[in-house]
## 1
Amino acid sequence: MEEPQVKLVKTLARHRLSNTAARTTVFTALLEHGPVTLAELIRYCEASIDRASVYRTTALFESIGVVQRLQIGWKYRLELSDDFQHHHHHLHCLSCGTVTAMPEDPALENRLKAAAKAKGFLPQDHQVEIRGLCANCQAA
Amino acid sequence: MEEPQVKLVKTLARHRLSNTAARTTVFTALLEHGPVTLAELIRYCEASIDRASVYRTTALFESIGVVQRLQIGWKYRLELSDDFQHHHHHLHCLSCGTVTAMPEDPALENRLKAAAKAKGFLPQDHQVEIRGLCANCQAA
DNA sequence: ATACAAATTGCGACAAATTTGCAATTTAAG
DNA sequence: CTTAAATTGCAAATTTGTCGCAATTTGTAT
């Protein structure tokens, strides 16, 4: 797998979009800080770019498949899509609120595909969230 | 299975929460109108209760497992949890926007539980959304 | 390199969604 | 029926998301 940054540039080029400082900043923030709320993302970027640009950039990124939205808890979160990091699902702790990635499970993936096909559905992508208590919060 | 309304009262009691008119109203609205956006829910209730109370009630309901949030497209929707209606997952057609329920698949359910436990996580509930094209839209 | 056209950004305003404090009301329990 | 605690409505504040437009930056072709 090539460098994520390089891949971003190529993806932008493929869509005839400019490679700008703002886009790099948002991308890097997403790369470094896992799934984030938009508010968090804005906080990470606001030293160099405007709120409105963060909105515009993430909307753009989503439309070209660079980021995906997760509805986790009350607010949605954004993370890089499977093209930029390994496909995974999420464990959401209802007590402490943290969201962690779940290792990929081929058997699970297959069941999902099979279930969709059984209804004549052509699956393109999917999202799984398991809510419960993380190891730490079970102890407490 | 007993009457949903009765079950709600019991659930509230179990959590030492009052059984109030506002909570009954919100619950009934959810029971009658499938998965709804918060804006819709407010519209259904605003004749008798305040916007702020709808927010407070749904947040409470979510915390005690009476309602769950679904990601359908960009906005979330609320529906009664599996304790109040049959457990199911969602197929979301990206072309026509319809959302249909997926038949329960025990093998899939088991994989999900196993995956969570492998991380020391205590699963309470989960949610799956598969996005793609429904049978109709594939033809078109 | 330089110049130019097109794409992108920042900067307010704005509109919509969600949250909060607090006084008034309702509820559960005795 | 009384009373303390929980819940609600109301209004105001905050947070989130959009929009138009002038100023800047980018990609491309000299």
## 2
Amino acid sequence: MTYFITTPIYYVNDAPHIGHAYTTIACDILSRYNKLKGDKTFFLTGTDEHGQKVEKAALSKKKDTQNFVDEMSQNFRDLIPFLGCQIDDFIRTTEERHKIATQFLWNKLKDNDQIYLSNYEGWYSIRDEAFYLESELTKTENGLIAPSGAPVEWVKEQSYFFKLSQWEDKLLEYYEKNPDSILPRSRYNEVLSFIRGGLKDLSISRTTFKWGVQVPDTENHVMYVWIDALCNYITALNYPNTDHDSFKTFWPGIHVVGKDILRFHAVYWPAFLMAAGLEPPKQIFAHGWWTNEGQKISKSVGNIINPYEIIDTYGLDQIRFFLFREVPFGNDGDFSKDAIAQRVNADLSNNYGNLIQRISSFIIKNSDSAVSKPQNYKEIDHQLLKSFDETLVNYIKNMNSFQIDKALKNIFDYLSEVNAYVDSQAPWSLKKTDDQRMKDVLYLVTLITIKISVILYPVIPSSIDKALKIYNLSIDNLNLNNIEHFSPDLINLNIPKPLFPRIDL
RNA sequence: GGCGGAGUAGCUCAGUUGGUCAGAGCGCACGGCUCAUAUUCGUGAUGUCGGGGGUUCAAAUCCCUCCUCCGCUACCA
């Protein structure tokens, strides 16, 4: 099995914020999970660097446009390791390879009679890079403004159009056959109802600015955002060389996107691909938005969440965990200090971290820092092992369907069971009555803790690296295929330090 | 306006095809343990399952209606 997962390419006009971090971490979790399953994975992210907004921003800062996007793109690249993410490629739309790919895609569409020249006129917002109907606009003292509050101007220009209207039936047919190709299901329904409402041809070029990929065989047209931006996903797989190993191995892929850009990914992009004779994406997952302490996040309110600040405050894995444990993936969520502290303390510090701490400290003090495989397990021990196997099955089922929160819930429900097992067996009492049984119990709990750590790895990788070091183990030798029967003869322990200090409320 | 989703304990939410489905976690109260990051374990309380009506031997679960919230989409002015 192979697994190709992508974030959208981020528009370099903004500084990276929690939304970018959220999408990137989501893909990292899924990518690591699939690696753990043994799949060959490819995790792609990058930056979208063209368009009028960028051109103007550079101008207003009196910077050369290329230098400007170089700097802005670097901000996004720098964020990745800070988020604990491991990517396989970072693509920029200003790269030569991307120009080659998009121009080839354009020509392919043109050869297939999917593109024609016409005129576009209407109310245009530079800030939003979008046309609006007059009915959508509001009159103010400064003239008409878009729903976003951005000013608009009347623009008339020649434009190339893509024959999107011809793809209505093909798209519907494809989606009806592949109901899991857009998730969550509510988003799938929205997309289908949008397509059923009828599709209009799509304007795909502009003459009002220069900062973009030139339309082949024209003087003054550059490609408008969608062909340019969406094509990145296949550029990175060496398109137009569809015989290339990475293209053959990894396409079609999985796109994780914010709900605001679902339509472009689920309608325009598959239509472009089919029109060019390529397969549509395998899956598109639309996630939700975060609010900040119950409030909508916006520049004007000034409550933008800076990923560097929250990670410095709470810790990397604490944030990664919170984002995906607290809220069903796909739903909107609220980012609040209380919720983070509560979640991290209850699950990571108390339930998981303290289990490791109490057992490993006990082994070091009372069992010469080592435990060996028991000769026999009791019935209650078998129960605990069986329960792990069930947890693993549910975990895999949920991770496979993007339900990261449920997969994590499975784990923490089980950890409660393990803590209860420890109390019921009370090794501190066995110490006085039955040394061998005490050691067997300690081994079993240690073994279970290791297994749990492995499946927590995709979400909190750096903490799991630390946890496994206590047992002189490494994630490199453990995975979802060998974890079920993992049971070494001897486990030597190192002195543990609390993995997740409690957060003061 | 159309289409879709949601309204269940203080909070966040599970509840497949109608019959242990009235639940979980957190929080709260009480009790126990003392290995552990004042951690853990056990016990307990609170709900007219949005309102009203209906079908049924039986409904949170199906039907009708109303209210509220959200998403997508359309349009008049």
## 3
Amino acid sequence: MARPRKTQQIDIRARAIAETIRLLDEKAATAITLSEVAVAVGCRAPALYTHFANKDALLRAVHDAGFRMMLEEKLALAARHEGDAFARLREGGHAYLRFAFERPGLYRLMFSPPPLVVTDENPFATDAGAACLAALRSAVRSCQAAGYLPAEDDAQTAFTLWAAVHGAASLVLQDRAPAADRDGARAAAMATVDMLMGFIGATRPPLS
Amino acid sequence: MARPRKTQQIDIRARAIAETIRLLDEKAATAITLSEVAVAVGCRAPALYTHFANKDALLRAVHDAGFRMMLEEKLALAARHEGDAFARLREGGHAYLRFAFERPGLYRLMFSPPPLVVTDENPFATDAGAACLAALRSAVRSCQAAGYLPAEDDAQTAFTLWAAVHGAASLVLQDRAPAADRDGARAAAMATVDMLMGFIGATRPPLS
DNA sequence: CAATTAATTTAATTTTGTTAAGTTTCATCA
DNA sequence: TGATGAAACTTAACAAAATTAAATTAATTG
């Protein structure tokens, strides 16, 4: 049965991405073989080449899927904090870190991505990572409207905040946090968000 | 001449590390082959196995060398800013980013390291990365003594600052900074340091 | 100076990404 | 409806690169 009957077809593309995400929590991307992915999917390795140009393209698809997941969470969370801009920023930071800690392998791939596969379209046209940054930027503007933070340069402020939180996640996932155990390291990252929020809180001129 | 005469011996270990650092600025670690390294060193690939257990061990040695280089720079800079704790922190941030931007390939390897090679010794006993964090922590304490920052928890503060600056470097090296060109992205990272210093400056109670 | 150890080489092996060739199913169109 | 071509797989073959084995020569040591 070279070509499977339509009734027993599986969505190789979607399953390969999902299984790779799962495998990423067991081993690094370089250690994952296409055979492994194929077995998990339920096909042979060359079948993957019908859906992805090569291994890097698969990893890039996983990378993109990661950012789409992150964006979804971000938008859902924003909807839950319509009112309080300051709280939205804080909860956004905490949620970001939970995302990273729940899927450490995926997070690592998202931020040390495989070389971009050459395509004819603009890679950033559909980049969910850029959309995540845009969402953060909108939260920053809400905070500015509430009197926090320097009034100008919301893009720069959003970048700074993302850098800080991403940096905390990244260091923790590499065991570079000054903490004895895993939970201590994660707590240190969470505390980073709180410290930043403390700084931001201090930027608000005292009520007169 | 299977074994080279002592007069014409080369220090394969040191040269392999140096040449790999150089190659890292041309291509990613996964794309560097041991043959390439061997050619650059002036030997054959299997000779590398006398000095490194495997490719990961070589990359780990490069990773460690990177942190030692960073530590040296950090200590040299600290010596130049004995007096002014605030300036030391700011200049330290800028120097950190210059380090990352001058050696992007090495920096990437330092923060998305290959799996740790199993050895019998404690990997953190000689970890220059930990020493870098300790140096930053001492700069934080100086700043606290000068009246900046929350007074307690220097370790947490140092971690937060490192996270922010590392995060900025990491995002820029992945083209995730909101800037049109390379120089704009790097400027955004530098501005991150300035913004943090602004926050820190604001933590000092106004002179009465 | 003989014997062992060390540092390298070339040759062989293995793993894994990728391509080629072959097979079955699906879709289209006369 | 049946032939034909395209699509989605399979198994087989290939190629590159990491690793190991075997062989060779130099250094060291007793």
